[in-house]
Design goal:
Shape: globular
Helix content: 25-40%
CATH topology of the largest domain: Uridine Diphospho-n-acetylenolpyruvylglucosamine Reductase, domain 3
Largest sheet: 9 strands, antiparallel
Number of domains: 3
Structural class: alpha+beta
Order of helices and strands: EHEEEEHEHHEEHEEEHEEHEHEHEEHEEH
Number of strands: 19
CATH class of the largest domain: Alpha Beta
Number of helices: 11
Distance between the termini: 24 Å
Oligomer: single chain
Length: 402
Amino acid sequence: MTNSHSVFQPDTQDDLVKFVTENATNSRCRLLPVGGATACTKMIGGDLTEVRLEHLNRVIDFPARDMTITVEAGIRIADLNRILASENQRLPIDIPQPEQATLGGVIATNWSGARRFGCGTMRDYVIGISAIDASGQRFSAGGRVVKNVAGYDLCKLLVGSRGTLAIISQVTLKLRPMLETSALVALTFDSLSQVDAVLNRLLTSATRPMVLDVLSRMGTLARPNEKTGKSAHPQILIVGFEGALWETNWQIETLLAECQPFEPRAAESFLGAAADSWWETLRDFSIHSNSYVTFQASLPPSRMCDFLRLTTDAGIAVQAHAGNGIAIGHLPERVVTADQSVAAIEPLADLVRSCGGHLSVLRAPSGWPSLDVAADSWAGSLAWTQRLKRQLDPHDLLNPIC
């Protein structure tokens, strides 16, 4: 028996409710919610219908004075950003492929980028949410005002749920004002020991960074000078600031003075438009690679440099949100088989397990074995989530929990 694969694209939220209700009553086909299809979503076999939400892209309410907006979940991030910019407002989450990515997809994966150190994640901005469960029942949580806390836990529950509990159809976000300028400082070091020392120093810095990222094994981005005889793969610490022009300039000067004792090989600052290429590098790192496997690891920030030592030795390019303990890595292009991927991941997995962390694969060829690993401490959380799914989706019609 062959498995069938179909696509349903609702034009309205009512169309979506009707379709999900009929599916639960009759065919009971598995439903895969899809936004911009920019993230890897795991599905098991069986009859499958992709529920594509791009047509659910309307602005429901935008009371700009309240610094909130209510939109349908299929709105493209680039379109949302343009609408917010017209009122000098923003959603300060760095999202790759904004012309393709949808708000619902970003919320379902709880994606966040370099600014998460200073601005937080999607969970910090979703204050109201509407969704359809596997039986076709529409439900809502939260509200349209920032101080509304009713159903707040349910909002947090659906953020990062990856379509396993319900299909997100509408969202209310709190917003932030546009700032006058932003800047990035790129500090290049020959060793991770130097980076570790600087990160510890920044815990007591007079500055207030928005971004604290380490780029490891980034090749030509580091512009190494072969004549110096120094490391061919230096570590680049990126520190970002936002605010008024005078404030940003002061923070750059202060940071450079604080880091001088640690003897960076190079220290460059980029202000305003001059920093755009670096911002794009930070935003799009997860998608710009020819690697077969891209992964994300979560571990205590205090162990990040230990993790980077392993990845550097293995030739793995990494962007580490050092202040939050999140690392995104691309296995080397020479890793072309499932067995080679397992061998490359295993040393990283051992470290992740030992410090209570988690590692998951964002992209890998279809049919390759799962490379996801988690410490034993994650088992209780997974069991609780599976019990919740059995209550909300008893017939297992939505994306499975893996």
